[in-house]
Amino acid sequence: MFEEAQLAEQFNAMLDRQQQAADHYAAVAAQTDDPQVRRQVEQVCREKKRHIQLTQRLLEIVD
Question: Is 26 exposed, middle or buried (0-12, 13-18, 19+ CB in 10 A)?
Fold first, then answer.
């Protein structure tokens, strides 16, 4: 049980960092005027959102 609690804590911390990064990338994409840069940043943001989904799934498994 202790190990599961530690994993959940680590996954929650990871989830927080990933959400902050996704928010940052979304803000950068909204502020850039260069369409190519915007597309690249939006792609990174989509990938980050996928990481968020996977981390949420890990949390479901641990709980």
Answer: middle
Structural domain harbouring 48: 2-62
Return the structure tokens found at 38.
């915007």
Q: How confident is the model over 11-58, as pLDDT tens digits?
A: 899 999 999 999 999 999 999 999 999 999 999 999 999 999 999 998
pTM: 0.82
Number of domains in the chain: 1
CA dihedral 46, 52, 57, 62 (to 10 degrees): 160
